[in-house]
Write a structure and sequence with these properties.
This protein is an alpha+beta fold. Helix content is 34%, strand content 22%. It contains 5 helices and 4 strands; from the N terminus they run βααββαααβ. Strands 2-3-1-4 form a 4-stranded antiparallel β-sheet. The radius of gyration is 16 Å and the shape is globular.
Length: 139
């Protein structure tokens, strides 16, 4: 999944998180947004257009229709959405080099998270949990 003619690429990663650790992850996200200089490494990455993390509790997972049975999920889920230029490997590597401790902080509560360094297990983790983007519109 490489950059073609300077166009942006969309990445979607959905990772399971133990339901009883969600409150701690929300606290970490709050601190990252409100404590100065925590995410400064991200600001230096010109290839990132957009990045967002969202946590959906296991009892709030959306249903497409009222007739759809409510699921009894074992995990809550953390979703990561991003738009970027460059190749997939460049993007994932640049995140690792810009904020390795931040990535570990954001994802460490998630099931089977291997840490951001070394790169190969982290790449494998992201690839395993990535949902392919079947349609992406860039104006």
């Amino acid at each position: 999944m490489s950059n073609i003619a300077g166009k942006a690429y969309a990445m979607n990663v959905i990772t399971p998180i133990r339901w009883y650790k969600v409150w701690l992850n929300r606290l970490i996200f709050w601190a990252a947004q409100n404590v100065p200089n925590v995410l400064n490494g991200l600001l230096t990455l010109s290839l990132i257009h957009y990045a967002r993390w969202v946590i959906i509790p296991r009892d709030k997972f959306p249903r497409l229709d009222p007739s759809q049975p409510k699921e009894d999920l074992e995990y809550s889920y953390m979703m990561f959405f991003s738009n970027f230029n460059g190749s997939w490997a460049q993007y994932v590597d640049s995140f690792t080099f810009a904020i390795p401790s931040g990535l570990d902080l954001f994802w460490k509560m998630n099931v089977r998270y291997p840490k951001s360094v070394p790169l190969t297990p982290f790449h494998d983790y992201i690839q395993h949990n990535q949902i392919d983007t079947s349609h992406y519109y860039n104006a």
